[in-house]
Design a protein that fits this description.
The chain is built from one helix and eleven strands. By secondary structure, it is α+β, with helices and mostly antiparallel strands. Strands 3-4-5-6-7 form a five-stranded antiparallel beta sheet, with helices on one face. It has a four-stranded antiparallel beta sheet with strand order 9-8-10-11, with helices on one face. Strands 1-2 form a two-stranded antiparallel sheet. A hairpin with a 5-residue loop joins strand 1 and strand 2.
Amino acid sequence: MNRFAGVRGYTLVEVLVAVLVFSVLAASAYGALDGLSRAAIDQREHAEALADLQLTMARLDADLRQLTHRATRNPLGQLEPPLSGSTRGLIATRAGWGNPSTLKRSDLQRFGWQYDNSVLSRLTWAVTDPSASSAPQVDVLDLELNDFRLRFRDPAGGWHDQWPPVNGPASALPMAVEIQLETERFGSIRRLLVLVP
């Protein structure tokens, strides 16, 4: 017992102060780590949304740059123009449909873009002249859009909300297509695609 007589330990007050200081440091470190974690999650979501938007614009760009003058037949057998469009979407035929498996099919593809109820979709058909039983494959694009609009420019320089224009030839393709997007995250985006005749 005499060995410990001169040794002095920590008082209860000193231990409580040390625990309090450690608690404050731990809470501030947790707050900083939580803030960094939230910033990393927000950055990742922002990058994913931007990648989705860029991929969508690249697909739309590729579809429009490979337009063909080939008219198609609707399920009733009537001729349809190579491109039918409105402010909310379009249906057309494009070239360059890849065939890596060398299937016996055309390299032309009937495709469409449609905006309805804040949802943008890309439609594709397995055949160029779809029948009544040919349902399109629908690819819904998750872009958080508030608005999507198209306009079409004729060779004379006039802009139209529909294609073919009322007084224009049905077999003609537009010289340019204007795409306007309104997104939640990135605001308003305008893209002008000049199409080589």
